[in-house]
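A reminder from the course coordinator: this example appears on the midterm review sheet, so study it carefully.

Given structure:
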């Protein structure tokens, strides 16, 4: 199933009109290479392709030797580097290329933040356009599917997630095997190698604990105690998991620190299929007791995809008071505050009184199965 990726056209325009490089971030298997090849085919430029997972050309690209790099790229219009985080000192070498060979267009993909490998602080500031490619979004699916068809896909996506490969697999067995292989073979690959993780089982155990706690505030001390590691080590592992695009954090919103909870974060997964395979639960919705938090995770990540692809910048939070009033999700832009409550069933909930009294100029909306598409793809 070929799905048009939303950011493809924007990247093509930038490559045609700008001398800056293009860096596409995203987890492994989200379709970065496929999209990059489509872009290259559309541009029709003579392209040198280098794969960071293979040894060919890597010594030259990581050499900091401009003469060698110029010799390698001579006669090419476009340099494409796939999985660039695996190339030593890739940040500073890309800086050399962009500064010294302005006629060469540069397209790079990375499945973890590049500084995780290069250990160089912001070498590409002002020299590249950064894009984030996520697992397939509802916005992208809406390009070829109507509302009824999107609704029909919803249960499968809540169970198996939205990695591109999942959409081409017909049977539950094949989807199960794919997600298990993804979790076992790809999920930790860059994390363990570049994050200097000595005990990969602790990372897996941490992810499993986090998978059971989506939608809840997370205590680093409690996680550390459960795993037999320090609070600081837990914090470091979570930071590395974020840089590898497996999880992301949302902090508490507050303008009244004495009443509102802000110390702990909530953690969600970029893909709910990965979350489900980590806890070994790929049951359909009728046999699950976690549909509420699955729905919450899906809506938040789909909202993030939507805002990212539409190039809209919002700060995002959850909100809770010490007395127990809460909202699942809060957005803020230019002083405008919007609160949301996510309900799998349409219950017509109202905003908590303490929210309305404290944030009198804010908006509030319940997002449920009847109106969610307007929230994530209109």
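Designed residues:
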């Amino acid at each position: 199933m070929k799905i048009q990726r939303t950011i493809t056209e924007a990247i093509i325009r930038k490559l045609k009109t700008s001398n800056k490089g293009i860096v596409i971030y995203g987890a492994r298997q989200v379709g970065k290479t496929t999209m990059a090849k489509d872009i290259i085919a559309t541009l029709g430029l003579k392209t040198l392709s280098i794969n960071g997972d293979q040894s060919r050309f890597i010594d030259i690209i990581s050499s900091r030797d401009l003469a060698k790099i110029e010799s390698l790229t001579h006669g090419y219009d476009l340099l494409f580097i796939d999985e660039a985080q695996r190339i030593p000192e890739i940040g500073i070498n890309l800086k050399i290329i962009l500064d010294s060979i302005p006629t060469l267009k540069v397209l790079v993909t990375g499945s973890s933040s590049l500084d995780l490998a290069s250990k160089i602080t912001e070498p590409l500031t002002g020299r590249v356009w950064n894009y984030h490619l996520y697992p397939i979004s509802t916005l992208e699916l809406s390009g070829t599917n109507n509302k009824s068809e999107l609704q029909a896909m919803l249960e499968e996506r809540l169970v198996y997630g939205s990695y591109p490969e999942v959409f081409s697999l017909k049977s539950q067995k094949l989807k199960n095997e794919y997600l298990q292989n993804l979790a076992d073979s790809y999920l930790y690959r860059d994390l363990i190698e570049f994050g200097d993780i000595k005990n990969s089982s602790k990372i897996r155990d941490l992810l499993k604990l986090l998978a059971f706690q989506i939608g809840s505030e997370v205590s680093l001390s409690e996680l550390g105690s459960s795993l037999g590691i320090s609070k600081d080590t837990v914090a470091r592992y979570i930071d590395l998991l974020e840089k590898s695009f497996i999880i992301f954090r949302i902090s508490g919103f507050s303008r009244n620190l004495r009443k509102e909870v802000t110390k702990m974060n909530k953690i969600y997964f970029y893909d709910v299929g990965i979350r489900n395979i980590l806890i070994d639960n790929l049951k359909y919705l009728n046999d699950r007791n976690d549909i509420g938090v699955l729905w919450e995770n899906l809506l938040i990540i789909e909202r993030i995809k939507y805002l990212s692809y539409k190039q809209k910048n919002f700060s995002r939070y959850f909100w809770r008071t010490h007395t127990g009033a809460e909202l699942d999700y809060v957005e803020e832009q230019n002083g405008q505050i919007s609160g949301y409550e996510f309900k799998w069933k349409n219950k017509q909930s109202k905003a908590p009184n303490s929210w309305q009294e404290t944030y009198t100029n804010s908006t509030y909306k319940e997002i449920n199965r009847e109106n969610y598409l307007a929230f994530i793809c209109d």
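The chain has two domains: 8-132, 138-309. Residues 291-309 form the longest helix (19 residues).
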